[in-house]
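Inputs:
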Amino acid sequence: MNYQSAIELGQWIFLLYFILLNTGYLMLNMLSMINISRMMRENVSDELSQIYSGFETPITLLMPAYNEQATIAPSIRSLLQLSYPQYEILIINDGSVDDTLTVLQREFSLVPFPETYRARITTQTVRGIYHSTVFPNLRVIDKENGGKADSLNAGINVSRYPLFCAVDADSVLQRDSLQRVAKPFLEDSTVIACGGSIRIANGCQISGGFLEKIGLPPSFLARVQIVEYLRAFLFGRMGWSPINAMLIISGAFGLFKKDAVVDAGGYRTDTIGEDMELVVRLHRRYRLAKKPYKIVFVPDPICWTEAPENLKTLRLQRTRWQRGLAESLSMNIGLLFHPKGGTVGWLAFPFTVIFEWLGPLLEVTGYLFMILLFYFGMISATAFWVFLLVAIGFGLLLSMSALLLEEMSFHVYPRASQLISLMLAALIENFGYRQLTSVWRLTGLMSWLFFSKGRWGVMKRKDAK
Amino acid sequence: MGFNLDYASNSDQIIRFAFIAGLAAVSLAALLVIQVIVMRFKLIRREQRKARFRALWRPLMAQSATGESVSYPKVAEVDTKEFLIMWNHLQELIRGTSKNSLNQLACSVGMNLTAKKLLLRGAFSERILAMMTLGNLREKSAWSILADLMHDESPLISLAASSALMKIDADMGINLFMPLVTLRDDWPSVKVAMIFKEASSAVITEPLVKAIRGAKPSQIRRLINFLELANVAESSQVMREILAVSRDQQAIATCLRIMKDPRDLDMVRSQTINPIWIVRVQAAAALGRIGVEEDKARLIKLLVDPQWWVRYRAATSLSQLPFVSIEELQRILSEQTDRFAIDMLNQVLAERVV
């Protein structure tokens, strides 16, 4: 192979990679479109009938907290006002070094409680359990620091109900969140986990832990992340869910059948992607055991979370996510092309390996390759610009598809100016932002390869109102 | 910058292919932008119309529900769906004679006829709305169509039809509905329970008991869950029969969960030594509801059960017994030597205080 044909081969590889990647996402987009159309036409009876039957399965809400003194009280108040017939709230204080526990004791009149529970999953030492004297369904576990996964495991041990819902301390939930996310469990007994759609709270008016008015953030960085989240949730997850191949349920909000998780050993504490790892492991266990199960997604916007508004925090978040993804897939690599793997082992897993796990490497290499070839005059300016046209054109197409899905379904941003603003963000993100996040994800991949494990992600937060 | 497609190098093919792909993507994205904008404009117009319609009809419907005589404007075809959504929503919220007044309102603007048309020719969501409307209107003329739709493949359609029939005439409807409850595994229990709940327990008890007696063992487990919505006397009788012959531990546990007739005390007591813990849990809970003085000893024995849930239910049942005071609980606690029993009683005592 001579030098010219090597360059041509490289060009073909990167070009085909970009086209395949985006075609794959567009196919997911089609699946989502079909599914969302079906859901929207079927939801009329649910919207009208809000009566509880008494047959709803009780839910334990687990909220791990590490140094959350600023946000913990309003978050809990919002949980206390959720509309669901029977649920309990378990806050797990993971050895916070700030005043989280003091705030909890003061705000919710906590008293020490001699709770006995089955420690079915091994965790760090539980220092004490507290019960609110004001809210009978609120308890707090105070434990030695062990990370988010360890906290969730401690919560699972102490929980009393058959379903548990993992919620981030900075999450803002809609009043009917539990009702919506529990629906698949009520309709199908084989459902073992259900994820909800996460939206970005920046720019929204939040009061007392509840979302009062939806708005767009002034920061471009946060606005771009709205488009990213739409892509990730409306077709990234909605596309895989109907074929029971969704590999991730966001740690910010997900409902699980407790027995299924306990049987699987709970959350793994040696990964920072404990949310994704658990879901992949559940797929692996059920697929290999040939047990009927479903892991599903509800696209309704039910949980709102604060997105980073500075590059440093965003970089840390993205490197952590990429690392978590790498860990989750590598820990369950046996599922890849396993004869019993089904749609997960033969479709979602390989897709995620190629386009999400190794994606940043191929994307960054592709960009560098083309820039270097252009710089050293090995390709024409036309070839270079055409390559950019493909990369940016497909990126734009995907973002617009996500906006279309949003418009078909929930259109949560009511004003036309907000829509235009999101379209502009979808356009501009292709010129630098996406490439930058690819570099960060590559850093995450490298840190997974070469460095030790991470801990709780620390995010600079505004004080809660 | 213009792209020259008349390339001279060997990369021509790649560039041509890439250019076409890129151009197609950008063009499609542009089309999507246009589509999203068009959809948004349509949405804005729809929402504005909806707001005007609601502002006009909300007070009219409220006045009608209170029995005031009001003259109603004509409902344009385009507003039919919105009218039905508002009207059905209000029907869910009110009780008694107000429902009849609302029904008169719907009939006076022709919604009974519109609903029947939608039932036959509407889109999916319109058919569901039509069924809800016909049910709330108690429209007997739609009976046969709804009875056919009960057998529809879609659980949403078949359940909406069932709900409508039960509202129109529960006594007749239950005879059509109950056999399907036995057969349709795809009907969520929650939805079935909601339909049962809307009918009275007097209506559902006999057909339900009959269905359980005639059901296959695999169907019984699901059906007995609904017994808690039926009359106590009849449901207790059928549960006794199940407990006497069934080897399905899940079914036994469900019966114990529902049992509240003190005459079944012996049966409940015998299950406190069942080798399956899910049965023992329910037996302990049942003793908390119907137990007498002598059952204290049984519950105390269950405090050392190997299963946490059995110990917890035994302790809470002890604490719930009307003749067991806090002092009595403390006395029982002081007599315990087993660590698990002590921990559990401590917890339940603390729960009582909290």
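The longest helix of chain B spans residues 12-65. Flag for discussion at group meeting.
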